[in-house]
Records
---
Amino acid sequence: MVAASPTHSVILGIDPSLRGTGYGVIRIENRKAKAVDHGTVRCPAGWSRSRCLAEIARTVGSRIAALHPTACVLEGLFYAQNLQTALIMGEARGASLVAAAEAGLEIFEIAPRKVKQAIVGYGAAQKLAVAKMVQRMLDLPSLPDADAADALALALAYSQTLSRYSFDSVKRI
Amino acid sequence: MVAASPTHSVILGIDPSLRGTGYGVIRIENRKAKAVDHGTVRCPAGWSRSRCLAEIARTVGSRIAALHPTACVLEGLFYAQNLQTALIMGEARGASLVAAAEAGLEIFEIAPRKVKQAIVGYGAAQKLAVAKMVQRMLDLPSLPDADAADALALALAYSQTLSRYSFDSVKRI
């Protein structure tokens, strides 16, 4: 399903949010994607915003240092309920992006609908459908939690655009 | 006008934006505020968003390492024209906050109107009026640029709340 990339063989997907940033790293080997690592940065409600942001940057940075991805993929054209939500989501994105940019990764955005289309074949797919398909595509022993699944889906969707030489839905940021 | 703080004598103000993040560091000595450093992180339009964010975090981090502020102050309750603007502003804030939080600073927010009230005495003051008052309060040889002046104003406004023991307009984040 996923072909080898000429440029990036280890890809980090990130689904940032203040209390639960999902991350997932895939490696492309023999034209197939394998999950290297995935998880969620959990920041309890009692933590200050700035403490959460530092934890997000620290965790993303440590995964990059350990696993050496060369590309990082986030959602573009996101949805937010209001300005305050957008601001807080932006702060979590900024914390993630700083960690990736400081490590020299190439950073890309893909629109959420494009990710769902690429993984499930349907742009308005539910989160559970995405997680189940991610589990199947990567032969994961158990269902990844929703945030980590979204991050793995971003990495997988990006790897598909590489194999197809169709970069139209990917934007470098 | 500004009294010594029992807890923080070197204060960093930050006015984050993607292309021009203002920063200013003040030191409280003998119940008077002195400007230690101020400037603007300029990121040309040709730079990618992620490169700008890394530059913001790098510059803020280097000023913290050099000048050892113990408190960091940003604007709270900001205004943005739309969700996309809020997201991008949030990313710049996230980059700044990561640098401050990683260095262990206490981080606070003050509403923009409270800053203008504290500095100019009028919550809807123009940017130029803020810059002129900041120049006068800190005996600066020339008018600071608008972004750096806003950052110095944040630091000064915060230092006033310390001297008055009136923390009601300051929120720890």
---
Amino acid sequence: MSERLPLSAERIQQMLAHSPFIEFLKLEVVSVAPERTEIVMRAPLRPEFERGRGSGQWHGGPIAAIIDTVGDYALVMLLGRPLPTINFRVDYLRPAINTALIATARVRRNGRSVGVVDVDIANEAGILLAIGRASYATA
Amino acid sequence: MSERLPLSAERIQQMLAHSPFIEFLKLEVVSVAPERTEIVMRAPLRPEFERGRGSGQWHGGPIAAIIDTVGDYALVMLLGRPLPTINFRVDYLRPAINTALIATARVRRNGRSVGVVDVDIANEAGILLAIGRASYATA
Amino acid sequence: MSERLPLSAERIQQMLAHSPFIEFLKLEVVSVAPERTEIVMRAPLRPEFERGRGSGQWHGGPIAAIIDTVGDYALVMLLGRPLPTINFRVDYLRPAINTALIATARVRRNGRSVGVVDVDIANEAGILLAIGRASYATA
Amino acid sequence: MSERLPLSAERIQQMLAHSPFIEFLKLEVVSVAPERTEIVMRAPLRPEFERGRGSGQWHGGPIAAIIDTVGDYALVMLLGRPLPTINFRVDYLRPAINTALIATARVRRNGRSVGVVDVDIANEAGILLAIGRASYATA
């Protein structure tokens, strides 16, 4: 069965459940805007993601994992299938404390062999906490 | 109480337990070699880290998180305290399937304000699966 | 003599002339918009920057150098002094052929010790050719 | 005419001359060691590459360009043809002053669609000045 493209928020939410790790991240699709190649997801702070015990601060590791995943799904929305990550970079700008994370991914290039996606991570007040840039194999 | 530097494998293993996220990664210090600024850790595959259900394949997210963490501890070994990550890059080279990960981190520069660390991720047979490069604030 | 901040386009154009390499790039300040932390510069194609002889195509090397430099000057505009680059990443999206380059740099974070800047490289028709992300030491 | 692989130092030196930009860098092949996927080149400091006038210090831009180029030729040595850069990262570790640069590039992965290369930049005394990591399209 071929997918109807671009994928809807509902269809993407379904696909997320196929991966135990993504399910563990508890990502929720907030909105899709394929006309500007953008997808927004939300991730709650789990106790397992804390940096220091009782700090309420996200460890950078799950933030990186969210960037990799949400970046991928910006391309999944357009192409209908998950794509292997070639590489990515994350820059940490401010500590993420006592907040869910809002991840906004936007495709900068959807090329024949490589797709490049920018991902901004903000807290619930809209303050930018981290930024990611990822390359995926689209061939 | 000031730490005796460089830190021993036992002391580092203790420190890892202070972070719920690192505890969740179940990282085990395999060896420290401060004279060549190198630390080796091992991480088992947890069910929560699987990419596709039943695939036995690591999702890239936890691999990135392991790179960030083990890279940090190469500097912790020398400096005695955790350091905030400025940014890092991960390149995925081969799928990681049905294997624990062996992470070897080596400090390339321990500067006054910035430390740079390379992290190689191999499977239990020594095949290289992913490589990371990370910058930490040492000031 | 202390600088009046943010720096004007004229003042930045003057400062660019102090560096033989930047002078060689022939960068021209097109506009400054400190209120949105953005600076735009233009670089013409020199014969020395060609990838293949007679191809009219920019080699990636000078594009990377332009990203590093224009990114730095987005922070110079705000802080009044050049800052050492910690590291940067460049992604090449499309070949740059028979065109001057328009570089738009925007500060994503102007922190106490680290500044992070995004740089978009477009051709004269506004098509995105490459993107850069750079960290500078602001301490 | 098909190339005999791996390419010799002489053949690579010839190929470098086809690009006006690479010719401008005055790169000289010092050695090739295809059995460990390594190539070494040397680049002299040109007046046009100075950061501040009369400083004798390399601007970071040409260092980045050298990383991109020498990294590419580590794969050219194995594959016989230039490959487009997907992206690369450079970390600056120490200022490069009054010295030629010695660039050592080693292939970390020569995959079907992506090649990954590490490049170390040292001064003539062997002190590490900058490190690069680059991805190239090999398909």
